[in-house]
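Continuing the series of single-chain predictions for the mutant panel. This is the parent chain; the variants come on the following pages.
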Amino acid sequence: MDDCIFCKIISGKIPCTKIYEDNEVLSFLDISPANKGHTLVIPKKHYETLNDIPEKEATKLMQTVQKIAKIIDKNLKPDGYNILMSNKPAAEQVINHAHIHVMPRYKTDNFKLSWTHKKYEEGEMEKVKEKLTKGL
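Parent structure:
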């Protein structure tokens, strides 16, 4: 993808501060971090969303996310961390290359992930469950 910033980073056309790299996955520091140490983990092949990534490659991606989370937790000693992936514009995906954020968190960082809590109508949970379990 010629216009994808992450593909340009993978090819070396745009520099990054690499944390980890292998044949399938690259991780690097986010240039606009929520907190210092905020790391992105991306597949080297261009996929737009999680659903586009073949299962074997998605497994490798998540193994790398776990590796980065452990390193952040051990070496930066945050109070916690978030793992975040946005898929499609409605979920606030800005760069159309699948990527996962590993964000160290601190009690005093004032960073909030929040949403309006909704409620199910009577019997609605069962209907949603049926839709979700169809085809599993």
